């Protein structure tokens, strides 16, 4: 798990592929100013982390070993504060999902891990984090 540092924005990256998670976390922290990215590989740990310190964004893979992010997504949707948490799904099954079907769960975007464009993901992440600074978000 990467260490959380003092910053103005906090992103949780829920991903069980440690190499991919570390690479993406470093890329996001390099590309964005004042953003800390914490990598977590277990949905239960992610929920405890979110309960302790609400992130500005959750980026998650759907398939986490024997666990599935959709279970956590349902749990997050059952509380108003975690329902409002913006989420991006980044998964090898991303092309099988429609963001319109998951918007009620706070999902802002869905990317297929095998084919996504980092520049487009970065633009979405930046947009979500910028909106988090605005009142009434």
How is this structure best described in words?
The chain is 41% helix and 23% strand. It is α/β, with parallel strands linked by helices and 137 residues long. Strands 2-1-3-6-7 form a five-stranded parallel sheet. Strands 4-5 form a two-stranded antiparallel ribbon. A hairpin with a 2-residue loop joins β4 (63-64) and β5. The chain is globular.
Topology:
Elements lengths: L8 E6 L3 H14 L3 E6 L2 H10 L4 E4 L2 E2 L2 E2 H9 L2 H4 L3 E5 L7 H4 L4 E6 L5 H15 L5
Parallel strand pairs: 1-2, 1-3, 3-6, 6-7
Antiparallel strand pairs: 4-5
Question: What is the overall shape?
Answer: globular
Structure summary, number of beta strands: 7
Number of helices: 6
What percent strand?
A: 15-25%
The structural class is alpha/beta
Termini separation comes to: 29 Å
Radius of gyration: 14 Å
H/E element order: EHEHEEEHHEHEH
Mean pLDDT: 88
Helix content: 40-55%
Can you summarize this structure?
The chain is α/β, with parallel strands linked by helices and about 140 residues long. It contains six helices and seven strands; from the N terminus they run βαβαβββααβαβα.
Give a quick set of tags describing it.
single chain; five-stranded parallel β-sheet; 137 residues; disordered N terminus; globular; alpha/beta
